[in-house]
Amino acid sequence: MSNNSNQRTPKPNRSLGRRIIISVITLIVILAVTIGFMGYHFFQEALRPLNPQDTAVKQVHIPLGASNKQIGSILQNNKIVKSGMAFDYYVKSNNMANFRAGYYQLTPAMSLKKIAVRLQQGGTDQPIQSTKGKLLVREGLNIDQIAKQVAATTDFSEHDFISLMKDKAFIRQLAKRYPQLLASAMKSQGVRYRLEGYLYPATYEVKKNTSLKALVEQMVAKTNQVLMPYYPKIKKSKMTLQEFMTLASLIEREGVNQTDRRKMVGVFLNRIRINMPIQSDISVLYAIHRNNKTLTAKDLQVDSPYNLYVNAGFGPGPFDSPSISSISAVLHPLDRSKDYLYFFANTKTQKVYYSTTYAQHQEQIAKHSPSKKDK
User: What global pTM score does this model have?
Assistant: First the structure.
């Protein structure tokens, strides 16, 4: 038996390998063409206005030194353009540059070219109201709450309003214009906002091209106007205006009716006279940056100069914007000679009970608190 040395080894199927390679290349080409087409279509769509029918003006802030890419992101985030990347591509391909910082009034109906040209022309150095509107500042709102109201009813943003409240140069300008009003506020230590308490609750007309600074000055000027007849009497009270407005801001949130507001002022002044903490929940809520909350024992001990549960005196300053009723109550306190140091309000009947000692206060609570059945 002999070996067949002439047996042939099967050759690789070169045609099959070639077909696989061709198929992969073809697939890659198809994918590349598809992606390229989709990318081209995306950019063509992105170059068009975001919404040709939406002409609502939005205020956009472009910071100093922002790059084209950053500007595109800002426009996209503010829903002015479809794609920040497309904006960046458009301005680079059209050699558009020298965009200027500032506040701009733009709409989703604008083309990229129109937006870019507007950015080259420059905006305003502060926010402006681009449409007519009215702003209602309600009694008892603090600056953080007013900021939300401003953002909801005007073209100004909450961030811009709060930033202005922290603008030291702007506040110094106001203090020079209204020295009687703001002198003691400027001297106060540890305040959150210098203008807290001095933005008078009222309805303000916000016309086209009204700046945010002009709007705020309207509020301050209104407070000055309201207080002008009372400056001599406030001076005789031996309180600074900052202390006076602090009491008014507490009474704004504490008081039930005008008579009780005046009596509560008497209680607070009696406590201050003997260096006893006012112990107002309103002060603690402000200290913990809350407006409505059931306070805990831990809340009452929060480390803040605004916490008048643990700190005697008036604290740094006002907690909200008081009305003329609360201002009047502080001017005319009631029953100080009765030496009341405590009060308790029945939440069901709204009747307020006053006591000279803590023991009497506890008795009033036990006797007049709403029963579980009433609740």
Answer: 0.76
Of 8-22, 61-75, 173-187, minimum mean pLDDT range: 8-22
pLDDT in tens, 207-231: 888 999 999 999 999 999 999 999 9
Spell out the residues 6+ positions from residue 371 whose beta carbon is closer than 8 angstroms to its own: none
Q: What does the DSSP assignment read for 46-68? A: HHS-S-TT----EEEEE-TT--H
135 near 163, Cβ under 8 Å? no
Cα–Cα distance for residue pair 31/10, rounded to 1 Å = 36
- Stretch(es) of the chain classified as CATH 3.30.1490.480: 58-121
Considering only CA atoms, which of 227, 176, 177 is closest in space to residue 198?
Answer: 227
Residue 345's φ and ψ, nearest 5 degrees, are -110, 125
What count of other Cβ atoms lies within 10 Å of the Cβ of residue 319? 27
CATH 3.40.50.300 fits 58-121, yes or no: no
Phi, psi of 126 (to 5 degrees): -150, 160
Mean pLDDT of the chain: 88
Query: Can you tell me which residue has the tokens 């007013």?
Result: 146
DSSP 89-153: HHHHHTT------EEEEE-TTS-HHHHHHHHHH--BSS-B--S-EEEE--TT--HHHHHHHHHHH
The enclosing H or E element of 343 equals strand 342-345
CB 48 within 8 A of CB 36: no
